[in-house]
Amino acid sequence: xxxxxxxxxxxxxxxxxxxxxxxxxxxxxxxxxxxxxxxxxxxxxxxxxxxxxxxxxxxxxxxxxxxxxxxxxxxxxxxxxxxxxxxxxxxxxxxxxxxxxxxxxxxxxxxxxxxxxxxxxxxxxxxxxxxxxxxxxxxxxxxxxxxxxxxxxxxxxxxxxxxxxxxxxxxxxxxxxxxxxxxxxxxxxxxxxxxxxxxxxxxxxxxxxxxxxxxxxxxxxxxxxxxxxxxxxxxxxxxxxxxxxxxxxxxxxxxxxxxxxxxxxxxxxxxxxxxxxxxxxxxxxxxxxxxxxxxxxxxxxxxxxxxxxxxxxxxxxxxxxxxxxxxxxxxxxxxxxxxx
Length: 340
Ligand SMILES: *Cc1c(COP(=O)(O)O)cnc(C)c1O
Description:
Number of strands: 10
Helix content: 40-55%
Structural class: alpha/beta
Strand content: 15-25%
Bound molecules: pyridoxal-5'-phosphate
């Protein structure tokens, strides 16, 4: 499998003593919030594979999609700029009432204020095309149409699905598990595999790659993907699909580790955390120095805490994947007003 070197690896594997003791587990954190500077987070690992494929096909433009504050869109914009590729982003903008089907005529700044990930997207010269939530349901169709349009103008576009989550992108997390195996072999975490991996789940690629890699490299017996949107049935389908695609790309991949989806911590809506969840983000930050975000990692940590407090975690050594998301936190300052 071709792979670019885009991420700063290996990321640290750290014991989080205070929170672990409170939860009655040995809690380890894989610091994938530290996979880079502005490109940091879990998406850059997937992009190492996806953009290698784009370059191999001589593409000059990358098209992808996400919520308006998508970390994936931003990581793509950073990585693409570093490789001399253009980026076109179809972003779902809440409050937008009409759109042009992703053709790129509408963008009204009020629907994508210059904060957090959007600031970085624009700084990097990505072309933003804002679409409504209704259009976003047809995102794959709209990205294909944008590719046709760009091709007609002489470009050679490469379409990356939401979250970089397909069989190829999942190899980023198969490789992350190989990286953890090397850290264990080097004496980290007493060299012992984990009982359970916990991480946030938004488009399924991280779960699929982690499940395959955790088994292949004997990193963990089980994983729990914490849904931040949709529900258990949706992600069971998506993750199964992505696992199958990855297995088709590399027949040496075996079966995945046992995995499950938990959707009890997704909060009020995608990208909206409850007050209790925001309070947890604050207390974890003050107790441990770990800065979680209100869209992904904060909710996943709340899910883990919930499961521990209700005695549903039958595991002692737990690995939490800190998948990044800092720019999304920085875009939500007003939601923390009154709590700080
Ligand atoms: C995208 C994202 C996730 C979810 O990963 P998927 O592979 O899309 O399920 C988790 N955390 C952060 C910070 C993300 O940006």
